[in-house]
Amino acid sequence: MNIALVIPNNAVEGEKSFYDYSFYKKFLFSKKYFSYLLAAPTLASLTPAKHKVRIFDENIEEIDYDWPADLVGITARTMFAPRAYEIAAAYREQGVKTVIGGIHPSMLPEEAMERCDAVVVGEAEGLWEGLLRDAEAGKMKRIYRSGGASDLTASPPPSRDALTRGKYFVDLLQTTKGCPFDCEFCSVSAFDGQRLRSKTVEQVVEEVKGIRGSSNLYKKKSIFFVDDNIIANRKYARELFRALKPYNLNWSCQGSINVSRDDELLALMKEAGCGAILVGLESISERNLAAMGKKVNLKHDYLDAIGKIQSHGIMVHGSFVLGYDFDTPASFDELVAFIDEAGLLMPLINVLTPFPGTRLYERLEKEGRILHRDWSRYDGTKVVFQPARLSVEELQAGFRKVMREVYSFDAIYRKLDAMWKADFWKRSNETDPISLKYRLLFAARLCSLAPSGGREGLRFTGRVLPRVFEKRVRISTIVTLMAYNDF
Predict the structure, then answer these.
(1) Cα–Cα distance between 55 and 136 in angstroms, integer?
(2) Contact 406, 449 (CB under 8 A)
(3) 236 DSSP 8-state letter
(4) pTM of the model as a whole
(5) Which of these, 256, 284, 304, lies nearest to 349 by C-alpha position?
(6) How far is 406 from 334, CA to CA, in rounded Å?
(7) CB pairs under 8 A, 24+ apart, for 125-129?
(8) Confidence at residue 476, expressed as pLDDT on a 0 to 100 scale
(9) Residue 213 predicted with pLDDT over 70
(10) Per residue in 71-88, is it b (16+ CB within 10 Å) or e — as a string?
(11) Residue among 444, 339, 327, 343 nearest 390 (CA)
């Protein structure tokens, strides 16, 4: 069979997205996208060699509906489910059988079944080959349910060669699944479970070798470990980081705040090439943290924890959600002040979103507080529920206020300047120095910012331009912050 695997577009037409990297394309004259989803290359690796597989990622290319597909597999997260359904409809009109899987259809299989020929609930490992046999025989079932958590040690590495890899800035790699925590708003524990499962360290090393060996451009690419908490199993993490050290990697990850109390582990992470860790700080309100079930955070002083992690040269990307039940109109200014005091350079800020399958969704639905189910607006930037102590308008305006203040050009420069003075990226600049050519190109592009950035943008350009040629300055960081400002 000819099998098309489709990754739906992450952007909504006419709207800017925090994730679509459109600013990079404009600023760098590049058609690259941040990264891919692992679902498609994972399915490609599970597909027997007798079938022909093509991956279409709408974020970098158009879907070739003329390619003679016999079966189409589409992965769907909640905010992109409407687009996934549109793609399925277009193929079904041509008489092509469609399968939809991923976290959204796993949580709402009845909805998904109305839009496609078959739905995969849960992980595809262990059932994909059976589905393909059924499809070949013309006996595909309406629903395929995973028999439980997959054994990661038995799974082949994702087939990244099936992707147009030169079109992405970052490669993704997963070493573990599951999260021991059970936050009310998080769908990870509902989909992957709380029991931690891991690949062997040897598997991960071989995957790293495969990534490095398949691209001559690897020196300019990074790896993001998509594990929900890469340090959840400390013994495994130590072994993994020691094994990664010889490969001179540049990587980032997600992890819990309690890593701040393990200097040995932080040192190993840095030596292995970790430059940044996304920590779910979620809220500066202890009442909110208790309500959402983020108990681990209640045991830590945020400022001390951030300071400790960053003292090892690992940047903290703290993530926050706005709109939990104890947030008030004062919460927005309080968060801005905290981010400024902590010196968080790239905080990830989202409007609280009740994704289907979470305990938050069930609670708000029971309380009659879910406003609608237009999944395209469940993107972390729009209010889709009735807050407890705020109006919908107050929460939406508060989100905009926080984003504008945290990512104003003045705020960006103030925090960048502090990090430059501390020579924060010293090791990165020694192991992966920025060439004069790229500094010159960046300076030229930066000058084009002034007409569109207004007075504040002009001031930012005037401040940054003389520093572009300092060795301690990472121009990629500046571009990322400019993209967030653009959003």
Answers:
(1) 20
(2) no
(3) H
(4) 0.93
(5) 284
(6) 12
(7) 125/42, 125/46, 125/150, 125/151, 125/154, 125/155, 126/150, 128/43, 128/46, 128/47, 129/46, 129/47, 129/48
(8) 86
(9) yes
(10) bbbbbbbbbbbbbbbebb
(11) 327
Q: What is the CA radius of gyration of the chain?
A: 23
Answer whether 463's CB lies under 8 Å from 455's CB. no
CA dihedral of residues 134, 136, 140, 146 (deg, nearest 10): 50
- Record the tokens describing residue 440, joined without a space: 């010159």
Phi/psi region, residue 92 (left: phi>0; alpha: psi -120 to 50; beta: rest), is alpha
Averaged pLDDT, 262-281: 96
Determine phi and psi for 324, rounding to 5 degrees. Answer: -65, 165
Highest mean pLDDT among 12-21, 28-37, 151-160: 151-160
Q: Which two tokens stand for residue 319?
A: 């993530």
Residue with token string 């989909």? 191
Count, residues in the chain = 487
Q: Token digits for 76?
A: 């769907």
The confidence score (pLDDT) of residue 29 equals 67
Instruction: Return d(Cα 484, Cα 487) in angstroms, integer.
Output: 5
Lowest mean pLDDT among 19-23, 74-78, 84-88, 378-382: 19-23
CA distance 418 to 156: 44
List the structure tokens of 236.
């495994």
Q: How many CA atoms lie within 13 A of 165 on its CB side?
A: 23
Encoded tokens for 75: 């992965």
Q: Closest by alpha carbon to 318, among 282, 363, 352, 292?
A: 282
- Name the residue type at position 313: G
Tokens at 223, concatenated: 């790896």
Encode burial over 322-357: b for 16+ CB neighbours within 10 A, e otherwise: bbbbbbeeebbeebbebbeebbbbbbbbbbbbbbbb
Cα(147)–Cα(177) distance, integer angstroms: 16
Q: Which two tokens stand for residue 229?
A: 């908490």
Q: Of 385, 331, 335, which is closest to residue 358 (Cα–Cα)?
A: 385
